[in-house]
Structures are given as structure tokens and as C-alpha cells.
Amino acid sequence: MLFERAMKSTLGRLCLVLVLGATPGSEAAQLALHDQEPLNVAPIELDEAEYQWIRDHPEVAVAAVQYPLYLFQDEHGHWSGLNNDVLRRISAMTGLRFVYQESFSTDQMLERLESGAADISTTLAMNDQRKAFLDFSHAFGGAGWVFVGRRGAPEVNAMEQLAKRVLVLPARHALEDSIRRDYPAIEVRSVKTYAEARALVESGEAYATIENETGAQLYPSGLLKVGALVEGKWEADHLAVRKGQPELLSILNKALEAFPASELRAIRMKWLSGVVPAAVPTLWQRLTQWGCWGMLVVSVFGVLSLLWNRRLTAEVKQRCDVERNLSDQLAFQRALIDAMPDPVFVRDLQGRLILCNRSYEEALSVRFDQVQGRLLIEVDALPESTARMLHGEFMIQLRTRKTRFSTRQLLFKSGVHEVYQWTVPFFSADGELRGLVGGWTDITQRRAESGCQCLL
């Protein structure tokens, strides 16, 4: 077994070296290593009113939503991406200090800008509705919109194909108003996020969705496929500025005008070279690439010939079968818990969240990866008093090992709701206490959805 592991490690390293040598975009990966280096950029010239605005506003709040490649948080929780690099350059040129405020949907991001809680956004497309409360800077790039449909269904190439079909879009999508106006035969359904929109297309509840061309290429195809570009629609990259800040808009425009075109191209190449259509390779590039692949194939077959025997074949097959069965079980369990209409959660012996379903994320307006491993009192999902009360009850249940089923009123951020709450301790196969499984049914919401006006 040690010999097998050593050979696999050697093979993995060999494959990595050959693939990197054959990948045209490897230079972009090297550029990413220098993201944290200070920028040596000459400041731009501003007028006195603009300098005074910067002194009066030491921080500029950026409403940010996770938008891979353009703006996202890396594994260390640091904001990264194409737009982050642009803001870093603008900060070095002007002295502005940008502070991110994370939002979990386009709708929430727009609400922050409308209310004045945030000053700018880097990922909003321009439309007439947004121009009512936002100003937009000069463009610094862009991409088209594409249809995303279900694999096996006819490819969507035009809006006319969606007549009398369901088109699902995130709430307040940049194209929503124009589609409703120009294509009344299309049934437009709104959801919170692109992830929910893709899920409805996968399940067949919706026929298609529309995404940014770059973003659509980032996700594994699975049951989805990317269709044609939406004709006549282009999403230019702008910095959206809350109205009433002409000095800030002027500063940003001056910085973008002074932004060297070569540097902007390099930043876009760094982040988008792996997803945008590549140039047709030359004959020499093709021969080099074929040679690298040929070396890879020969190396793989040479290593496999040393390891190939009946015992190894049997072990590999058995292990693959076990892993496949385990993956199927985990996928089924995940689908089962996500299919539950009511919020469900699992917490460990310290009260840390280890699992929840989509209904739980939607009810508390959180994402699992943001609250995983954290106590209820450590996240801003419920009012502080409610979070502390529920956390205390969880810890008492873990000490007493008693179940709890009750109808009660709880204060959520959206107001007081009457809920049927349940929490049950769960144990391992050997009888050891492992944590709590719980959830609730929002009776208030059920009554509102059913139209019931009766009083208890």
C-alpha cells in the first residue's frame, strides 16, 4: 500500500507539471500571487472639493454580493476578484478607502444603496429603474447575457422561444422590467439568488434563466446547459454610486480615465482568461500541446503498467463501489433535507451549527457556509434577545437530554411570529449524545399564505 501511495503521488505531480506546461492561461495564475503587494501608483489630480469630500468621508461602503471572478471571498475570507483589483488601483490613485458590506442577494444589495447604508456597488448592471436612485461611472469592460436552460431540452436562442414558459430570475434582475414590458407572454418568476434560479431550471419548474456570460461558464453543467447570447443586451461593467454624491462619482470617473488600458486588460486577462473564448491557437502551439498530451499519456500508461495486477484491480473496484454508495447516500440525504418545506438544523454538543436545509437559510436570510460551525449568538440572523434565549434552551436540552415540542411566539427580524418549534437530542450508534436536531413551522406564515383571518 505504501508503494501504491508513493506511485500515485509521483503520478499526480507529473500530471500537474505537464498540464501547467500545456495550459495557455498559466501566466494569469502567477499574477495572482502578487495580489497583496502594495501598489506603486502615482496619485491623480483632484480639485479642492473632491479632496475635501475624501477628508469628510474616510471610508466608502461597498455593497458586495458574491459574484465569482468579479467579486468573491477566498478561502481566508478576504475579498478578491477582478472588481476588487480595480478598487485597489483606484484606492492607490485617489486615497479612497473602500470597506465591503456583504449582501446575500441583488435585492438586498439594492436596498442597502437605496437606504444609504452603502455608497457604491461594483456588480450592478445599468437599467432605467436603477438610474432613479443610482449614478453610474464610466464603463471599464463588460459581457453579454446568455440563456441557461435544462440539458436535453431544445437550446434557448431567442426570447420568443420562452412565450408561455416560465423564465426564472433573481429579484430585481437588470433585464426583468424590459422583459415584462416587451415580452408579456413570458411568465417571469422571481427568486432570491441565481443559485435558486438554476435549481428551478434543473428541477423542470422553470424553462430557463438568464445569467452573465462569464458567470454562467463557472458552474458545472450537470443538468444545465448554456444557450445563445440574449440579442441586443449587453452588461457593461460600471461602478454604481448612490445619488447625491457627485464628488465621489467625479473621483471614480477621473480614476477610471487615468487607468492605463494595458493594465486594465492585464487585470481582465488575469481573472477571465479561463472562461472567455480563447484565440485560435497557431500550428506550433497545437503541436506543442499535442506533444505535452502525448508525454502525459505515455507517462500514465508507463506508471499504470508497473502497478497493474489483479489484487490492485479488485481493491480499486471495491473502494470505488464503497465511495459511490456513500456519495449516493449523502446526495440522497442532502436532497431529502433540502426538500423539507420547514427550516431544519443540526447542532453539536456546544451548540455550533453543523447542518441546515435551504428553508433554514431562507428563513434567516443566511448562507450555510457563512454560519457553519458558529453559535446562534455569534451570527446576526435573529434579534440578540431571541438568539440568547434559544441558545440557552439548547444547552439545557443537551444537559437534560429531553425533547422539546412547543407552540410559541418568537421575535424574528421580520417581526413576531407564532411557530411550532421542536428540538430533539440525537445519539450515535453506541448511544453517545452527539447534539440536537431541530426546526420549526411558521404558523403565522402558513395562515397568511392560506388567507386565514381567524383569531386564536
Could you characterize what this model shows?
This is Transporter substrate-binding domain-containing protein. GO terms for molecular function: kinase activity. Keywords: Kinase, Membrane, Signal, Transferase, Transmembrane, Transmembrane helix. Belongs to the bacterial solute-binding protein 3 family. By secondary structure, the protein is of the alpha+beta class. It folds into three domains: 28-136 and 238-272, Periplasmic binding protein-like II (D-Maltodextrin-Binding Protein, domain 2, 3-Layer(aba) Sandwich), CATH 3.40.190; 142-236, D-Maltodextrin-Binding Protein, domain 2; 340-450, PAS domain (Beta-Lactamase), CATH 3.30.450.20. It is built from 17 helices and 17 strands. It has a five-stranded antiparallel beta sheet. Helix 1 (2-22) runs antiparallel to helix 12 (283-307) and helix 3 (48-56) packs across helix 10. The model is unreliable at 1-35 (pLDDT under 50).
